[in-house]
Amino acid sequence: MTEKRRTLIIGGGSIGERHLRCFQQTGRADVMLCEINDDLRETLRDRYQLAQVFGTFEEALAAKPDIAVICTPAHLHIPMARQLAERDISFLMEKPVSTSLEGVAELATLIDEKNLLTGVAYVHRSNPLLAGMRDAIRAGRFGKPLQINGISGQHFPYYRPAYREIYYTKHETGGGAIQDALTHLLNLGEWFVGPITDVVADADHNALEGVEVEDSVNVLARHSRLMGSYTLNQHQSANETQVTVICENATVRFEGHKGRWSYLTEPETEWQLGEELTFERDTLFINQANAFLDCWAQRTPFVCTLGEGVQTLKVALAILESVSDKSWKKISV
Ligand SMILES: NC(=O)c1ccc[n+]([C@@H]2O[C@H](COP(=O)([O-])OP(=O)(O)OC[C@H]3O[C@@H](n4cnc5c(N)ncnc54)[C@H](O)[C@@H]3O)[C@@H](O)[C@H]2O)c1
């Protein structure tokens, strides 16, 4: 029997509980929880029969886990990651990496010095459909990519009724559509066609009651020469994500809501199926947990490194700036 990794989940809120459950379901992790809310901590201890739970981060660090999963609001990610790295603990961090670049370069240096495994939980990268479409594009099957368009939306209050009481209400804690949902789409675009180098953006608060942060955003982007556009809102009824990569010899499209990617090579012909697959949302998080555990065992880089997460953070910060002063921004890649 393989030895289980002692895995600490930090923050047992909405996504923390999912990571807890999904790491447990790999059968390869002994899961511990650090959660400051006493009622929530005890509920999760009972629900998942956890052997060890902690009410403070200091107590959790003293337990010397092998791996930690940072699931607190974004403004806490870097200080927590720093304390983990100082104790030689590898970590998977929820998105976005942070709400500013403060402490990011110092953390990256420390991680390099200590040769630790890090990852950012941009979970699209654990979706086999997206991985298959990316592999086909990058292998040159459709010719060179020329343009990318991402469109996404969902009714956030339906899926997250507590949105008025969590990190979402303020930019300072990682809230608003840009830092919350759009970063997933941007990170996916960067995974497909490389880093975003320039952006100009428009955003507004249009619909979500009880908050003032933007819930709708349009971005024009450049991935160096390649042109991109990303549009997203958090109030439409349809829960849909579509990413189209226009290549020299085909239009290639992922439709998350239809569980497939497909391609079209000649005008006035039918779309042809690349791959079709339906799965529960937990499956992606179990894939992600297994991939992180594999990387830990094999000492190989995770599918989204801290560096790639930081790049997407720079794009999100540039978009916030662009919305405020209505001008193009360059991102130092
Ligand atoms: N990948 C995804 O699909 C996805 C989905 C939701 C949220 N997220 C990200 O995950 C992060 C958390 O989001 P959430 O929705 O779970 O928020 P949440 O508010 O539901 O949960 C955060 C939890 O962290 C706990 N916490 C706060 N400070 C702590 C500390 N010092 N020590 C231990 N626990 C502490 C809180 O008590 C709370 O239970 C955010 O960065 C968010 O953007 C990612």
List the defining traits of the structure above.
binds nicotinamide-adenine-dinucleotide; 6-stranded parallel beta sheet; 10 helices; 15 strands; Dihydrodipicolinate Reductase, domain 2; globular; Rossmann fold; 9-stranded mixed beta sheet; 2 domains; alpha/beta; 333 residues
List of distinct ligands in this structure? nicotinamide-adenine-dinucleotide
Shape field: globular
**Euclidean distance between termini CA atoms:** 44 Å
Count of the domains: 2
Please give the count of helices: 10
Bin the helical content: 25-40%
**Number of DSSP strand runs:** 15
Strands of the largest sheet, in order across it? 14-13-12-11-7-10-9-8-15
Largest sheet: 9 strands, mixed
- What is the fold named in CATH at topology level of the largest domain? Dihydrodipicolinate Reductase, domain 2
Order of helices and strands: EHEHEHEHEHEHEHHEEEEEEEHHE
Strand-helix topology:
Layout: E1 5-10, H1 14-25, E2 29-34, H2 38-48, E3 53-54, H3 57-62, E4 67-70, H4 77-86, E5 90-93, H5 104-114, E6 118-120, H6 128-138, E7 145-153, H7 156-159, H8 176-193, E8 198-204, E9 216-223, E10 226-233, E11 240-247, E12 251-255, E13 260-264, E14 272-276, H9 281-298, H10 306-325, E15 329-330
Parallel strand pairs: 1-2, 1-4, 2-3, 4-5, 5-6, 7-10
Antiparallel strand pairs: 7-11, 8-9, 8-15, 9-10, 11-12, 12-13, 13-14
Helix pairs in contact: 1-9, 4-5, 8-10
Bound molecules: nicotinamide-adenine-dinucleotide.
The site of nicotinamide-adenine-dinucleotide has 26 residues, from helix 1.
